[in-house]
Amino acid sequence: MKTGFLFFLPLLLGFLFPINHLAFVDGPVTAVGVNANPIVTGADQISSYLPYLKGKRIGMVVNQTSIIGRKPSVDSLVSLGVNIVMIFGPEHGFRGNASNGDHVDDSVDSRTGIPIVSLYGKNRKPSKEHLANIDLLIFDIQDVGARFYTYINTLNHVMEACAENNKELMILDRPNPNGFIVDGPILEDHLHSGIGMHRIPITHGLTMAEFAQMINGEGWGIPKNQCKLRIVKVANYTHDMPYTLPVMPSPNLNTQQSVMLYPSICWFEGTIVSQGRGTYMPFTVLGAPALKGIYPFSFRPVSLKGMSETPLHQNTDCYGIDLRKYDITILRKTKKLNLQWLMKLYKAYPDKARFFDRSQSTQMGNFAFLAGTENLKQQIIAGKSEKEIRQSWEPGLSAFKQMRKKYLIYP
């Protein structure tokens, strides 16, 4: 009975969700056409890849954003008879409930009984032993398109493991909600870290599959083109298309507004200004106690389990800017990061010597590691104009944009 169902399922899904583009891609491809049909993620195109999984032992690199329809992709594929033998979870864990930066231990999934290996604990990539009994590894994680968001690092580590152990990697691609912005300083080599592995700007404008092709083609961490990729493309998608995430990608990106503002706000992690961690509106507000009397808007960070247990300025009123109703279409029109918030709050801060005086004990607390350059801090302090700051990002930014074209799958 199950065999018959699996045989007809691809035909049924192909009828319900017709795909107008070639589903599988090997290596860099040219841009595809776009029609008026709705966006369909790679994972939702089951008819394109389910037959390929038959008879294989599957490993999956997934988290809570990995869904087919509204159901976790692991659960869906297990119910369809796919032999998933191991799950690999990134930062925040497989079910997405660990705080940022928290060590995540190996475990067993209570729903399916499948072993879970954390890639944000003692392992940063699957080992030879992990992959010994796996025929195909599937990567299906929603990214937000920023250099300091660690899922692109996880992708790189997984590709290294696949290249080293001669395993094929299938990527079920998803849209990049910030795919319309390619902007920011290029990461300087001496600032390579866990929040910046690649010589790219702050926003790279790539989907995970496109980024994987760039890793492969540029030989970042692996010999060039040594990771065998099989890509299930997003249908009916272009980089300029608005895309609302069906599942929030991490505990502190809990609204669409926070996802869109994140690339322009995360560098505040390296300042004395709170980005709203410790509230239920993270990455949509900015403030600090010392700005009292300058800004009327205020919020109070507190310890929130699973989000921010020890936030900056805990239990203290912070005063600053409320961006919850900021018009995101402005970012879409300019296709640039917003530098004005950083420049404005530095100028308003009473004790400027303390503005960048965040804990330097971690990379996340160090402004240079977040910005990817030592220059931006000095430029803000010196009162450089936005035009002057942006000019300093060249010619690196333009060179990246040109190189990026080789790896695009979508217009």
Keywords:
single chain; alpha/beta; Rossmann fold; Aspartate Aminotransferase, domain 1; 2 domains; three-stranded antiparallel sheet; 27% helix; globular; disordered N terminus
Any overview of this molecule?
It comes from Spirosoma aureum. Residues 58-256 form the Peptidoglycan beta-N-acetylmuramidase NamZ N-terminal domain. This is DUF1343 domain-containing protein. One of its GO terms (molecular function) is peptidoglycan beta-N-acetylmuramidase activity. InterPro entries: NamZ, NamZ_C, NamZ_N. The structure is a single chain. 27% of the residues lie in helices and 12% in strands. Mean pLDDT is 88; it is low at 1-35 and 96-103. It has an eight-stranded mixed beta sheet, with helices on both faces. A three-stranded antiparallel beta sheet has the order 11-13-12, with no helix packed on it. A two-stranded antiparallel ribbon has the order 3-4. It is of the alpha/beta class. It has two domains: 12-246, Rossmann fold (3-Layer(aba) Sandwich), CATH 3.40.50; 256-399, Aspartate Aminotransferase, domain 1. α1 packs antiparallel against α2 (46-53) and α5 (151-164) packs across α6.
Q: Provide the spatial order of strands within the biggest beta sheet.
A: 1-10-9-8-2-5-7-6
How many beta-strand elements?
13
**Low-confidence regions:** 1-35, 96-103
End-to-end gap: 43 Å
Calculate the mean pLDDT score and round it: 88
Largest sheet: 8 strands, mixed
The CATH class assignment of the largest domain is Alpha Beta
The percentage helix is 25-40%
Task: Name the CATH superfamily classification of the largest domain.
Answer: Uncharacterised protein PF07075, DUF1343
Rounded to an integer, what's the Rg over CA atoms?
22 Å
Strand content: 5-15%
- Number of structural units classed as domains: 2
CATH architecture of the largest domain: 3-Layer(aba) Sandwich
| Tally of separate helices | 13
